[in-house]
Amino acid sequence: MKSPREPSRPDDADQTLPEDLVDALQTATRVAVLTGAGISAESGIPTFRDALTGLWAKHDPMTLASPEGFARDPALVWQWYQWRRELINRSTPNAGHRALAELAIHFGTFILITQNVDGFHQLADSKDVLELHGNIARTVCSVTRRPIDPEWIERHRDQEPPPSPHSREGLARPDVVWFGEALDEKTLEAAFAAAADCELMLVVGTAGAVHPAASLPSIARRSGADIVEINPADTELSHLARWRLRGPSSLWLPRILAAMNEMNHV
């Protein structure tokens, strides 16, 4: 493991990439990225708790995002997720999402791991995204977890939630991980493997408060990787970072892409 170094923290006024970070990007072949709610907040998507406003302010998060809450009031939970889907459908990926999609061509291995459920990385054309917490656009059976076709949902849109075509007892539910549920084992294993194998990890827009995702930068650091944190403020993960780029990811990620394009004459 590399010895700890004083994190490089460029002046926000100058907004230039540290030279040693540019050097590290040039030599890295295996890169992993962990993104959180911050990158999509720049597209106008509120974080889970920030979305608990207006009509939803009176509801406890555990009521809206847990198996127990769904069993107690499936219509309420379905309406909450339909409202969130509408917010996402009115928004688009930003420059940070698009820069990550283009960065992939510059490295031998580029693994993008996200805590977000909005699907914006795929919309920005990133490939093989590891979605730790699922995807709000997909719908599954609450009993079998088999996917439910959007056409079925549309045909039964007058029911909240629609019944499942796969089980008499089942209902349609979003394909996301709720409080108290385990993450998909294969996805989590792939994320752990990517963290342990990378030479450089970009940690973008996450406060590091939700586990097991928050453990991935620690795994990368213990395995000898350098960490780049991109966030407007210090987080629980900042102490792991060799470089702290303070500001929005829609600023810093395009700058990283531009540096890579210049080095590789793209």
What would your notes on this structure say?
With 266 residues, this protein is an alpha/beta fold. The protein has two domains: 1-44 and 93-133 and 184-266, TPP-binding domain (Rossmann fold), CATH 3.40.50; 46-90 and 136-176, SIR2/SIRT2 'Small Domain' (2-Layer Sandwich), CATH 3.30.1600. Helices cover 35% and strands 16% of the residues. It has helices spanning 19-27, 37-41, 61-64, 67-72, 74-89, 95-103, 120-123, 150-155, 185-197, 216-222, 249-263, and strands at residues 30-35, 109-114, 130-131, 134-141, 172-176, 200-204, 226-231, 243-246. It has a six-stranded parallel sheet with strand order 3-2-1-6-7-8, with helices on both faces. Strands 4-5 form a two-stranded antiparallel sheet. α10 (216-222) links the parallel β6 (200-204) and β7 (226-231). α6 (95-103) runs parallel beside α11 (249-263).
Brief digest:
The chain folds into 2 domains: about 1-45 and about 95-135 and about 185-265, TPP-binding domain (Rossmann fold); about 45-90 and about 135-175, SIR2/SIRT2 'Small Domain', CATH 3.30.1600.10. The chain contains 11 helices and 8 strands.
CATH architecture label of the largest domain: 3-Layer(aba) Sandwich
Shape: elongated
Q: What profile does the largest beta sheet have? A: 6 strands, parallel
Share of helical residues: 25-40%
What Rg is obtained from the alpha carbons, in whole angstroms? 20 Å
Overall pLDDT metric = 91
User: What is the spatial order of strands in the main beta sheet?
Assistant: 3-2-1-6-7-8
Distance between the termini: 33 Å
